[in-house]
User: What shape does this take?
Amino acid sequence: MRSSVLSLLAACALLAACAGAGEPDETAGWSAQRLYGEARDAQSSKDWAKAVKYLEKLEARYPYGRYAQQAQLEIAYAQWKATERAASLAASERFIKLYPNHPNADYAWYLKGLVNFTDREGLMMTFADMDMAERDPKAAVEAYAAFKQVVTRFPNSKYAADSSARMRYLVNALAQHDVHVARYYMRRGAYLAAVNRAQHVLSKFPGAPATEEALFIMVHAYDKLQLADLRDDADRVMRKNFPTSPYYKGPLKRDVSWWKLWDPDW
Assistant: This one.
């Protein structure tokens, strides 16, 4: 019995060897320069899978060559283009950890920001038909942090201007996300939670367009909570900062507060 099992194992090993022998590696003997050149050609043709394959072989065979470090960045980029988001982030983060002072470290941070910024499952999707209280803005937060690294650590980088512009967009998007959550709480009568979320917008994202609606939500929520002093304080702040706000609707009477004239579809 034992000899039969050994014979079977030997036969399997032989078959595996024969199968491997029938599929020679076309890149065997290629120099680092050729592997890199072929990878770049594959990228030009948008064959991202082939590009990653050549770059990974390059990194494995020539880990200390002059192309190895660049290959890591190229892998991260090709994986991003191939919509392999997790793999791209891992490659970018590995490069940043291994070579924090590399001349291309700014690009590694920028690429990490781009991958998170364009995350199709994150905040950048449309808000329509989505329960914002259940959405996770993690990707947008991480994108902002990565772009901030570019702007603060590499102010002269060619990626700094675009990173700064994307940061401004993300501030507005994150603020709007919190306003949507506050609306969610208002619709469900969770007025204190709505106030807390609106206050978060004002403290974390001052100057963002969403602060106007955040203030209105605070006024409306305080009114629902029958906290007249806090309601009036929020009202004064909103009138001072947004005197022509579209949330003021209709002529105001002394005995009728403006927030009671607006019947929002929470």
In short: The two ends are 76 Å apart (CA to CA).
